[in-house]
Write a structure and sequence with these properties.
It comes from Gonapodya prolifera (strain JEL478) (Monoblepharis prolifera). It holds the Pfam family EMP70. Its main location: Golgi. The chain is α+β, with helices and mostly antiparallel strands. Among the domains are: 34-242, no CATH class; 307-312 and 477-622, no CATH class. The protein is built from 16 helices and 17 strands. It has helices spanning 2-15, 77-81, 111-122, 254-290, 292-297, 318-343, 354-365, 367-380, 386-414, 423-450, 476-503, 511-538, 545-553, 555-569, 576-614, 618-621, and strands spanning 34-35, 39-40, 42-49, 52-57, 87-88, 93-94, 99-109, 126-131, 134-135, 137-141, 147-151, 153-154, 156-158, 164-166, 169-177, 185-196, 222-234. The strands form five sheets. Strands 3, 4, 5, 8, 9 and 12 form a six-stranded antiparallel β-sheet that branches. A five-stranded mixed β-sheet has the order 1-16-15-17-7. The protein starts with a helix and ends with a helix. The relative contact order is 0.12.
Length: 622
């Protein structure tokens, strides 16, 4: 009892200093009605572009009107990691009060500042503003002639001949609905922005808003006046609960169904193959070897039966495999738990940064499972220093990812981008890692090593059996590459949507399809790993431990190769830092896939072999 209280006290000591890192806003925000005439806050966020992965905080740019009394909004960890920097603005907007034209500010730009603005305009940067938790939207017409929203609006207009004009007048069109609202209150259901470039005099509204000369960025010292108009319109067809639908239109769902059908065909093929192995071949072999009369008729024993004395021989470098398996379980549980939360609607797009915040939160607290399963397998591999194994589980693979991000963050910082993590965020991540994850891994490892060792149905021979030549497709890297084809075939269509959402700063919300694909992927990885290891053992190669791990996660190799293809064919990134960001993040995704589904492949194969060899009488195999 005393030890238990010490454990709880230690957990509180480690968790409380890092609790601020998990600040989140509610996933299900209650609808907020606004009274007529009520002052609304319009927030400045960032600049982002499909041609660059470097975001810039609006409030820190010299050619943006800064608030007189800046009040940064408290951000959750996910918002910080995605480059958000949300600050109030000086736009004066009142509920249901129209404004024909108001002056925001006049800025005197130096030649360098004008050139910087022109460069960002030419890179097609978009401005992100936020009002009532809705991002400013540009109205677009899709391929089906439907009206949809595109997040943000262009900073300016690139001109022929290499020039650029800045959008210095914004018309805000705010849509509202009164359904279910109290008297004289309204719900905001749309936030549209119509930007214009209009040359005007300092501190004055332009004489006309429907044309005129553009406000050019000359690349020299100049003065620019920024103005805005506010218009209100009742929208009876959009309610507060559906106001995000216009942002989430990503084309027809038919392609997603094609992805599901493609995945199901692959799954059915694999299931049929596994059924043949389990119900016919293995069942027949086990029946023969358990029947003494039939055994006498089968003297030409070959295949998986002959390696029974070596199949559970501990692998080389088991002290490295056990921590990787623990980290893989930790990541796999994080992935599926986060998907479940998104599926039930807790992590919806209106909850800005929630997906990343919860993913990190779940990863840290899944450390207990990482330590437990790592310790269990470390004991199977006849390791004795369980404490050192626990520390390695908590530090080894996360340290690889953290080092990559730390190096890349240095390059991002040199570009003064908001994607660069502040020192406080780095400190919070380190506190989470060493203050929460590491102790939880250690606690899980403690309980794992206290458990009795996993008993194998067959004893291991003292002298290893010689391995004959195996077919080329079952050798080392060949079997690994072969094993990744079908799992990748399950997910590659859905990957296109995920990559587009990740690298074009759009919203991914098809979590129902994603969850179904993820479930099919899980079953596919299990079946591929079991089938290929069965064939490897039939070729009398008993080195299956590492092989099953890499076969299960080998689709990560194809994911990285596909990301290269996507970069070359779909993206228009040219600057070297953005390219570095893209490929390092793609590498991290591939590595996480490798260890998570590699662990799934390993444990499914391990359970399969224990069941198979446990079903055969030991005397029948000797």
């Amino acid at each position: 009892m005393r030890a238990r209280w010490l454990t709880y006290t230690a957990l509180l000591v480690f968790i409380l200093p890092s609790a601020h890192a998990f600040y989140v806003t509610p996933g299900f925000a209650a609808p907020e009605a606004h009274q007529d005439g009520e002052m609304l806050t319009l927030w400045l966020n960032k600049l982002s572009s499909e041609r660059s992965l470097l975001n810039f905080a609006l409030a820190e740019l010299p050619f943006v009107c800064k608030p007189r009394d800046p009040k940064p909004r408290l951000l959750n960890l996910g918002e910080v990691l995605r480059g958000d920097r949300i600050v109030n603005s000086d736009y004066e907007i009142s509920m249901n009060v129209k404004s024909s034209c108001s002056v925001l500010c006049s800025l005197e730009l130096t030649a360098e500042q004008s050139q910087q603005a022109a460069a960002l305009v030419k890179e097609e940067y978009d401005v992100e503003l936020i009002l009532d938790n809705l991002p400013a939207a540009t109205v677009m017409i899709d391929a089906d002639d439907k009206r949809v929203y595109e997040d943000g609006f262009r900073l300016g207009l690139p001109l022929k001949g290499g020039g650029a004009a800045i959008h210095n007048h914004l018309t805000f069109k705010l849509l509202y609905n009164t359904v279910g609202a109290p008297a004289n209150h309204k719900y905001i259901v749309g936030f549209e922005v119509y930007p214009k470039s209009i040359k005007n005099s300092a501190n004055k509204c332009p004489s006309r808003l429907d044309g005129g000369e553009l406000q050019l960025l000359t690349g020299e010292k100049q003065t620019i006046t920024f103005t805005y108009s506010v218009d209100w319109e009742e929208e009876k067809h959009v309610e507060w609960s559906t106001r995000w639908d216009m942002y989430l239109v990503q084309g027809s769902t038919q392609i997603h169904w094609y992805s599901i059908i493609n995945s199901m065909i692959i799954l059915l093929f694999l299931s049929a193959m596994v059924a043949i192995i389990l119900l016919r071949t293995l069942r027949r072999d086990i029946a023969i070897y358990n029947d003494e009369e039939l055994k006498e008729e089968q003297e030409d024993t070959t295949g998986w039966k002959l390696v029974h004395g070596d199949v559970f021989r501990p692998p080389r470098y088991g002290g490295l495999l056990a921590p990787l398996l623990g980290s893989g379980i930790q990541f796999a549980l994080m992935i599926y738990s986060t998907t479940l939360l998104a599926l039930v609607g807790i992590l919806n797009p209106s909850y800005r940064g929630g997906l990343v915040s919860f993913a990190l939160f779940l990863f840290v607290f899944m450390g207990t499972f990482a330590g437990y399963y790592s310790a269990r397998m470390y004991k199977v591999f006849r390791g004795t220093a369980w404490g050192r194994n626990a520390i390695m589980t908590a530090l080894f693979f996360p340290a690889i990812l953290f080092t990559i991000l730390f190096v890349v963050n240095g390059f991002i910082w040199s570009q003064q981008s908001s994607n660069a993590l502040p020192f406080g965020t780095f400190a919070a991540l380190v506190a989470m890692w060493f203050g929460i994850s590491l102790p939880l891994v250690y606690i899980g490892a403690y309980f794992g090593q206290k458990k009795s060792p996993i008993e194998h149905p067959i004893r291991t021979n003292q002298i290893p059996r010689q391995i004959p030549d195996v077919p080329w497709y079952l050798r080392g890297i060949n079997s690994v590459l072969l094993g990744g084809l079908m799992p990748f075939g399950v997910i590659f269509i859905e990957m296109w949507f995920i990559l587009r959402s990740a690298w074009t700063d759009s919203y991914y919300y098809m979590f129902g399809f994603f969850a179904l694909v993820l479930l099919i992927l899980l079953i596919t990885v299990i079946e591929v790993s079991v089938s290929l290891i069965y064939f490897v053992l039939c070729a009398e190669d008993y080195h299956w431990w590492w092989r099953s791990f890499f076969i299960g996660g080998s689709a990560g190799i194809y994911i990285f190769l596909y990301s290269i293809f996507y970069y070359a064919t779909k993206l228009h990134i040219s600057d070297p830092v953005s390219t570095l960001i893209y490929f390092t993040h793609s590498l991290i995704v591939a590595l996480v896939f490798l260890v998570s589904f590699g662990s799934v492949g390993f444990f499914s194969t391990y359970v399969f072999l224990i069941q198979v060899y446990g079903s055969v009488k030991v005397s029948a195999l000797c």
